[in-house]
Specification:
- By secondary structure, this protein is mainly α.
- The protein has one domain (2-318): Orthogonal Bundle (Triphosphoribosyl-dephospho-CoA protein), CATH 1.10.4200.
- The chain has 17 helices and 2 strands.
- The chain has helices at residues 11-14, 17-37, 56-65, 67-75, 80-94, 102-119, 127-139, 143-156, 172-180, 184-191, 196-203, 206-220, 231-245, 249-254, 257-275, 285-298, 303-318, and strands at residues 2-4, 124-126.
- A two-stranded antiparallel ribbon has the order 1-2.
- The longest helix has 21 residues, at 17-37.
- This is Triphosphoribosyl-dephospho-CoA synthetase.
Length: 323
């Protein structure tokens, strides 16, 4: 996929880096809104389901609130760690539902910085170039980024596994990080085997790119090819596809690896039925809704999967996908 990034925006508007940053921020906002609005999306908050303390509207508020943070990141005005800290702050200022997008911010921020560099001065867009540049950016993340990352946890209310000797709730870990010169990329490398977001950093955002390419391919397929022309359906399908192949680490953190793997097996069963029947999600809506109700009842929410889907939608929108 290679396209002029601004779609139908005027040539005059496209020529400035500030315009590119604004475009990137709007793509990020829309990606977060589309993800949380997609339904039925098994186990997670959507337009039809809230949790006891967190509502659909909290996610909408969070998505809208961080626009200036994403724009500054794309403009090159802030580091990854500083942008993450600011995104959490803005999200908390505008809603009271707790952690909504922490994992998504960890993906969107480096991808936005990369997009800002690539699209500056009216450049062109390509998925491989974007994720390659984002990987270079996260590899250059430093100890200050790691410190900002740690400081964001308490305010975001994130449920996480500790990183080896670094207790994410212990202020003493900050001193150890600084003394040892541990970077944010180092932390992600330590966590990659049990955290999907960390694995995206280390692997070069492979699943983010996969989701973007899947969404774009299905939405733009020619007649006679596998096609899903409903944006809601294609997001739900891609969510299930990713979940079927990657046990969700947010579920694993809350429960155990066996539970996460079982959820993936259930997703794979539904995906098999969809793919063997011309990608007709309407025919299997009942299966998806039953899966959704089961996960909601057991309080199993594939939050890491949702974060990667957001990044995938973001990349697809950057590339010019419209619906």
């Amino acid at each position: 996929m290679n396209s002029d990034y601004c779609g139908q925006v005027s040539d005059e508007a496209c020529c400035s880096a500030q315009s590119a940053a604004s475009y990137i921020a709007r793509c990020a906002q829309l990606a977060m809104v589309l993800e949380v609005s997609s339904s039925p999306k098994p186990g997670n908050i959507d337009r039809h389901h809230d949790y006891d303390d967190t509502r659909y509207e909290h996610f909408l508020a969070s998505a809208i609130s961080v626009s200036p943070v994403i724009e500054n990141a794309a403009w090159g005005c802030a580091s990854i760690g500083e942008s993450l800290k600011n995104a959490v702050y803005q999200s908390n200022c505008w809603q009271s539902g707790g952690n909504t997008h922490f994992g998504a911010f960890l993906l969107l921020i480096p991808l936005s910085i990369a997009a800002g560099q690539l699209l500056d001065n009216g450049g062109t867009f390509d998925v491989d170039r974007l994720v390659s540049r984002a990987h270079e950016i996260v590899r250059a993340a430093d100890t200050d980024d790691a410190l900002d990352f740690y400081r964001s946890f308490s305010s975001a209310g994130v449920r996480v596994n500790d990183v080896d000797e670094f207790d994410l709730q212990d202020e003493g870990s900050l001193a150890s990080l600084k003394e040892d010169g541990v970077t944010l990329y180092d932390l992600m490398g330590i966590s990659q085997d049990y955290d999907q977001i960390a694995n995206e950093w280390v692997s070069g955002f492979k699943n983010c790119a996969f989701c973007a390419q899947t969404i774009t391919r299905l939405m733009t397929a020619s007649e006679g090819e596998d096609r899903i022309d409903d944006i809601n359906h294609v997001i739900v399908y891609t969510f299930l596809k990713l979940l079927s192949e990657n046990p969700d680490t947010f579920i694993r953190t809350k429960t155990n690896i066996e539970t996460a793997e079982n959820v993936s097996v259930q997703a794979k069963y539904i995906i098999s039925k969809i793919e063997n029947n011309s990608y007709d999600l309407n025919a299997f809506r009942g299966d998806i809704e039953n899966f959704d109700e089961q996960l909601l009842e057991r309080k199993l929410n594939p939050g890491s999967t949702a974060d990667i889907i957001i990044a995938g939608i973001f990349i697809a929108l950057l590339g010019g996908l419209r619906f």
